[in-house]
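Hi R.,

Here's the input for the heme C complex you asked about:
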Amino acid sequence: MKRVLMVMAVAACTPAAMPDAPEGAALFAENCIMCHGVTGRGDGELAQGMKPAPSDLTRLSRNGVFPTERVLSHIDGYTRMDTQPEMPEFGLLLRGDSVPVELEDGTQSPVPRPLAALTAYLESIQR
Ligand code: HEC
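And here is the predicted structure with heme C in place:
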């Protein structure tokens, strides 16, 4: 019994592979396109007349760097609890095993896998 527990503990600590963009694309299609649009440009079905308008998510890197940290905290709702009620909070949806994600400053942050996948997808659609 003891040995089984140890094996499980080791398995739980093994770093999971970083999810890739296609994994995030599926989550995006399920949870985001109604506002941000199929292409992420902010032209979803619900976007008409919405104020503020859903952001164009293909232009997040317009300053030259993909703002990983801002995107992570935005989606997770940490930074918007009271101030911007327009975008639903995805905190519940985004629970799960954590994977390390590299932030702009080079540090690694443990992030729930679905959130990491969504971020990888968003980074892949920058233009
Ligand atoms: C109900 C409509 C709606 C849905 C659904 C929605 N968003 Fe948003 N989103 C918005 C609006 C409106 C804004 C701009 C206002 C704001 O910043 O909250 C925004 C802003 C953002 C931003 C910030 C962009 C920036 O410039 O910092 C990100 C990132 C984002 N959304 C990602 C997502 C992702 C990923 C999903 C799906 C998990 C999602 N959104 C689902 C309406 C929505």
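One thing worth noting: The two ends are 53 Å apart (CA to CA).

Cheers,
M.
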